[in-house]
Amino acid sequence: MRICIDATPIGVKTTDKGGVCRYISELIESLSSIDSTNQYTLFFNFFRRKHIPVLQEVVKRLRIGENFRIRLSRFPPRLRSIKEPPIELLAGKFDVFHNGFDYLPPILLGKGIATIHDVRYLEDMKHETKPEWIETLKRVAPIPEFYIRDYLARGKLFNRLRSTIRKTISRAAAIITVSEFCKTRITEILRISPEKIHVIYHGVDIRFKPLTGDEITYVLQKYRIRRPYILYTGRFDPLKNPILLLEAFKKVITSHDLTLVMAGPFNWFFYIVMEQARQLGIIDRVVFTDFVTDDELVALYGGACAFCFPSLYEGFGMPVLEAMACGSPVICSDVCSLPEIAGDAALYVNPSSSNRLAEAILNVLLDKGLREQLIQKGFERVKAFTWRKAAGQTLDVYNKVNIQ
Predict the structure, then answer these.
(1) Where does 178-216 show beta strands of DSSP type E?
(2) More confident call, 40 vs 83
(3) So what's the pLDDT on residue 273?
(4) What is the pLDDT of residue 134?
(5) Residue whose C-alpha is closest to residue 62's, from 91, 31, 28
(6) What's the pTM value of the predicted model, to 2 decimals?
(7) CATH classification number, 2-144+164-203+387-402, choose in 3.40.50.2000, 3.40.50.2300, 1.10.760.10, 3.90.1150.10
(8) Which of 272, 265, 385, 404 is nearest to 320 (CA)?
């Protein structure tokens, strides 16, 4: 079987590669470790010279076998947007084409498979934007102008992504998604057969593991983090619910000397969160790290007395598993995919109640037995999530689609 995987995202992004790039990289390497029979093409589709060194570094770093080859397309993006040619003209012949991020081209001669990581863009997310946020952004200074433009463009972006996902699902021979929750929402919203959708969980990178005290101390000193602290990580996003965490944190520190660490790349919503921390009078107790490397993130997980993830909407919830793998007790929302992913290894809270979240944080801080129980259950839970397992299940989907 000839399998083509669109690897473009890992070849063009130089910083903050994020979950999709990790998914593509881990899937490729794990497929290589279990499959030496089928022929794979890794397709990189862009037209800028500046990306060539990035691509060369990525290819050099990827651990792939002799049955993998690289195919680079430099068909101009402007021409693709006017009339996109059959993908076979750019990538070569294949039996199965897999795009790892919510998209399939309009013309496919072979079978198309797409991975849908998050279905938030199919939902009616009215609380994603609030009129007062733009006033806050204009009031907070200095702030890069493009952050304001980014905020104002969200509505158009969501509409475009919603349209793209709907078209992709209609074109696909099969859809891979990352949780039963996502599968259910796709079938409910788009009214398609559940047999077309395959749930394959992500794996947890082996780099996420408990560290020694010295390794943790070095990172804490770098970011001037004072223990004890609770940790939030991820992009700053309304649906991640960081403002509720600030409100709960304020209630906790009336009786406990505690720091809140918020690790994630700065964007337009970061300024909303920072302003809220200032208005709550807790800005001096919150550490905003900006982007951190994976190695630094492992240390932050390992040093935290609790990891808090009060998200309103998650397709999967990778930070929950990463925290568990590093030995951090997890407090997370009881909605969407999170109970499915975390199982019995997390303390669950209602993501609309700062009181409930504050109570959960205090329970973990004060109850040593509960804290140790969550840590040990977390170690057991993450054993079920491996990239090798994910690759095997993905290969099964390739085979099933190929013989249809």
Answers:
(1) 197-199
(2) 40
(3) 95
(4) 67
(5) 28
(6) 0.91
(7) 3.40.50.2000
(8) 385
